[in-house]
């Protein structure tokens, strides 16, 4: 057998797929084999998108395409440094592979576990939302995923808080992993999912997760994403959510780590009175590049959507926000709001933002706004006139800006996790500035 | 003693203060009155050290120290406080955090021990009560969503907490109803004493019924054109600034 462990560029990943095809999880399931083959065709056609592709105009994947990646090493029961748990229940993935030995999912009132073990039951569900033909990173994921988290909450279940921890290990050669997470909440079910991605400093890898999330009538999912990848890592995440009548999808993403990061979220509000809150903060320094791209589809009447993204940029970092709201003709009485603010703390930092509203219904309330600016000198002076030294005054205003992004998060455990992450990030930057 | 001598200043290249001479002995409260655009706020900002307000000549000393050589925060530590004509909104900065950070910064600069959250809260509650202000003002973002009167009272609350030795109040009376005006005036009067010096800037004489000044100065087109006792304020109220403006022109 031709075992391809090293992949470089799109051709490298395709070559790896050819080599692994027969041994990937679910290889004997015809529907899954077909899904992977189609994804491979889509990826072959698109490759890593260049900036000539409209959706990737501001984010250049060249560094990802140029890097070579190995397959993650076979997991061993090594002494891993796990961050403290953020919730009682925790699913741990190391280099994209589920680790039962590190997870604590016992006694949960719903199904939670490794997707790879349950593939035979997922025909028609896995791949129901992802669009490999449109999103090349979803194509890459579909082609090569080995595992992921499978969560199924029955009607009316209260799942409490669950942590999904993705840990990457530092190895000689950079690794690439493509976890596929599938989440389904039955009618009226609720869950808070706190997803954290991190790795030891210096680790190099590509983390390319895809989420497919289905919320039945009246369900509510709070999905917090704490992206604190290692400084040289790539994370290209694609989230798909389908929200039925009266259900709510709450997504808060903190982009604080990584060298090149994309947080792409596709949400479809398909039943009346469905709601979506997509909020986030991007905290960037040095050479970091972070991209938040949202695509929100109002397909049913009387749905509500709220988006607020705040980005702080230091050093030579670059931030991107692209937000598309599509209001279909059937979606009368849509209430949509999108706001995106950037605070530039360095003359060399840059922010690109592109809001895009497409409205085909006539009875619609939809607004958007974007601001890019530096700290307000009048505010700095007001604080200084009260005896607060300039450095502290500036720090207070940055903290306030960051706080503003987090303040909409009502879920307590998530709020605490975010506050801690934001405070930690800012403390590290201040240390850096002082040094 | 606050001593301003031959002070000239410009904003965006435009001369605004054209030679101000003004002395306020320690323990006195002086009023500065003048028509709109005469340079009252510019004088206040120059004293507080705001960027963009360029001093082109003259000097300002406070207790013998060159005030103009100090950073804004150093002036605050030296005892200066400016109540802004237009208090600045700080979204996301809690009023309590703001007040405690300011108070502790000044205490630190003075070599006094900092107050912990509990000690601060006790002190803030006491000052709020004295100013008939609701405690929930501490929980809101600084000046965000405050009415005009609330913003002015918040300035006085800051003054009551920071206990400056030299206060510059820039039209703290404008936009206040009579009750709020009385609260503000009481707040200032409560601080009066041998170690409290103030410059009360106002457009109207109304405030000076409640805060009776030791001296009144009239600022027209960047210069002090007249000085006198409290009766000067009443005279201006009767006769307006027109005669003085004509004289200055
Ligand atoms: N930031 C500024 N930029 C440009 N002009 C200014 C600025 N601040 C004040 N001025 C000008 O300076 C003059 C005096 O203004 P100000 O000190 O605010 O007067 P007052 O407080 O007495 O009404 C006015 O002509 C005003 O237009
Ligand atoms: Mg003024």
From TrEMBL, chain A:
Top-level taxon of the source organism: Bacteria
Record-annotated SUF system FeS cluster assembly SufBD core domain positions: 173-401
InterPro entries per record: Fe-S_cluster_assembly_SufBD, SUF_FeS_clus_asmbl_SufBD_core, SUF_FeS_clus_asmbl_SufBD_sf, SUF_FeS_clus_asmbl_SufD, SufBD_N
Domain SUF system FeS cluster assembly SufBD N-terminal: 15-74
UniProt xrefs under NCBIfam families: sufD
Family stated for the protein in its record: Belongs to the iron-sulfur cluster assembly SufBD family.
Name of this protein: Fe-S cluster assembly protein SufD
Organism: Caldovatus aquaticus
TrEMBL record, chain B:
Gene3D superfamilies in alphabetical order: P-loop containing nucleotide triphosphate hydrolases (3.40.50.300)
ABC transporter domain location: 2-246
Pfam families tied to this protein: ABC_tran
UniProt xrefs under CDD domains: ABC_FeS_Assembly
Family the entry assigns: Belongs to the ABC transporter superfamily. Ycf16 family.
The protein's name in its UniProt record: Fe-S cluster assembly ATPase SufC
Species this chain originates from: Caldovatus aquaticus
Keywords: ATP-binding, Nucleotide-binding
């Amino acid at each position: 057998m031709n075992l391809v462990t090293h992949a470089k560029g799109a051709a490298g990943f395709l070559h790896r797929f050819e080599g692994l095809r027969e041994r990937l999880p679910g290889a004997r399931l015809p529907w899954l084999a077909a899904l992977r083959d189609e994804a491979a065709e889509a990826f072959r056609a698109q490759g890593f998108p260049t900036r000539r592709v409209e959706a990737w105009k501001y984010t250049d994947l060249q560094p990802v395409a140029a890097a070579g990646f190995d397959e993650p090493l076979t997991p061993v029961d090594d002494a891993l440094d796990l961050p403290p748990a953020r919730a009682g229940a925790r699913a741990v993935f190391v280099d994209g592979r589920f680790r039962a030995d590190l997870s604590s999912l016992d006694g949960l009132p719903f199904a939670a576990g490794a997707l790879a073990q349950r593939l035979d039951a997922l025909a028609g569900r896995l791949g129901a939302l992802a669009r490999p033909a449109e999103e090349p990173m979803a194509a890459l994921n579909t082609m090569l995923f080995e595992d992921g988290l499978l969560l199924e909450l029955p009607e009316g279940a209260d799942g409490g808080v669950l942590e999904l921890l993705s840990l990457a290990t530092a190895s000689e050669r950079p690794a690439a992993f493509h976890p596929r997470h599938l989440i389904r909440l039955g009618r009226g079910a609720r869950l808070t999912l706190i997803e954290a991605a991190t790795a030891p400093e210096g680790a190099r890898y590509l983390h390319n997760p895809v989420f497919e999330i289905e919320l039945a009538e009246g369900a509510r999912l709070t999905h917090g994403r704490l992206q604190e990848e290692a400084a040289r890592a790539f994370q290209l995440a694609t989230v798909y959510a389908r929200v039925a009548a009266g259900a709510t999808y709450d997504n808060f993403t903190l982009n604080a780590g990584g060298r090149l990061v994309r947080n792409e979220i596709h949400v479809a509000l398909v039943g009346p009175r469905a709601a979506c809150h997509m909020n986030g903060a991007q905290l960037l320094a040095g050479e970091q590049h972070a991209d938040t791209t949202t695509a929100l589809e109002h397909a049913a009447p009387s749905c509500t959507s709220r988006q607020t993204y705040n980005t702080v940029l230091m050093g030579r970092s670059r931030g991107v926000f692209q937000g598309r709201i599509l209001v279909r003709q059937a979606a009368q009485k849509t209430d949509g709001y999108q706001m995106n603010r950037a605070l530039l703390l360095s003359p060399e930092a840059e922010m690109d933002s592109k809001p895009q509203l497409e409205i085909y219904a006539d009875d619609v309330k939809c607004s958007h706004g974007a601001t890019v600016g530096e700290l307000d000198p009048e505010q700095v002076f007001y604080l200084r006139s009260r005896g607060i030294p300039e450095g502290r005054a500036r720090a207070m205003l940055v903290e306030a800006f960051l706080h503003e992004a987090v303040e909409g998060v009502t879920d307590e455990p998530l709020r605490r996790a975010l506050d801690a992450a934001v405070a930690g990030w800012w403390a590290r930057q201040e240390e850096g500035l002082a040094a | 003693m606050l001593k301003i001598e031959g002070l000239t200043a410009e904003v965006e290249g435009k001369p605004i203060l054209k030679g101000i001479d003004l002395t306020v002995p320690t323990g006195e409260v002086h009023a500065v009155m003048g028509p709109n655009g005469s340079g009252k706020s510019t004088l206040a900002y120059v004293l507080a050290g705001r960027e963009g307000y360029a001093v082109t000549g003259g000097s300002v000393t406070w207790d013998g120290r060159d005030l103009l050589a100090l950073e804004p925060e150093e002036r605050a530590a030296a005892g200066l406080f400016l109540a802004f004509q237009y208090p600045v909104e700080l979204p996301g900065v809690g009023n309590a955090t703001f007040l405690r950070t300011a108070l502790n910064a000044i205490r630190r600069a003075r070599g006094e021990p900092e107050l912990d959250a509990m000690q601060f809260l006790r002190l803030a509650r006491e000052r709020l009560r004295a100013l008939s202000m609701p405690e929930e003002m501490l929980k809101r973002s600084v000046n965000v969503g405050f009415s005009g009167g609330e913003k002015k009272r918040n300035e006085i609350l800051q003054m009551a907490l920071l206990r400056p030795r030299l206060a510059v109040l820039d039209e703290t009376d404008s936009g206040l109803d009579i009750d709020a005006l009385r609260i503000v005036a009481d707040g200032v009067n409560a601080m009066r004493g041998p170690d409290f010096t103030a410059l009360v800037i106002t457009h109207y004489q109304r405030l000076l019924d409640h805060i009776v000044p030791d001296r009144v100065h009239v600022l027209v087109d960047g210069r002090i054109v007249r000085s006198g006792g409290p009766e000067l304020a009443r005279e201006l109220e009767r006769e307006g600034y027109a005669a003085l403006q004509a004289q200055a022109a």
